[in-house]
From TrEMBL:
Transmembrane segments: none annotated. It comes from Plantactinospora solaniradicis. This is Nitroreductase/quinone reductase family protein. NCBIfam families: hi_GC_TIGR00026 (TIGR00026). Coiled coil: none annotated. It holds the Pfam family F420H2_quin_red. InterPro entries: F420H2_quin_Rdtase (IPR004378), Split_barrel_FMN-bd (IPR012349).
Amino acid sequence: MSWPATMYSLQQRLVNPIVRLAWGLRLPIPGDALLETTGRRTGQPRYTPVCDGLDGETFWVVSQRGRRADWVRNLEADPHVRVKVRGGPRARWRTGTAHVLDDDDPRERQRVLGRGNLARLLCLSTSKALHTSPLTVRIDLDPP
């Protein structure tokens, strides 16, 4: 198995379940967020840990695997998503509409998002190490 495939498998089977559990216990890891999409085949909610890309009324996500990521395929089928940001009692879901941005530079997007926020920078740096074909997704959040 290649390095990216091994890391992807480790992330899917070990890291993501731990991060989802932390959110369920209201103890999210700083710098993380939770993305909810609707399964394109099942219609069921799907939860994906992502780096906290909140910037005002916009939420930015970089897909490590580009359009091959299941969550990207899901939001292409139904762009209405929810994002859970901020931990503890202040955690809340925000609804929004996702847009895949083929022309955006995902590495530059991550560099800009990481400025001034150490927890987010650590999440983005870890994520960047696993990129095989990064792709930027912009989520326009609905008013709170």
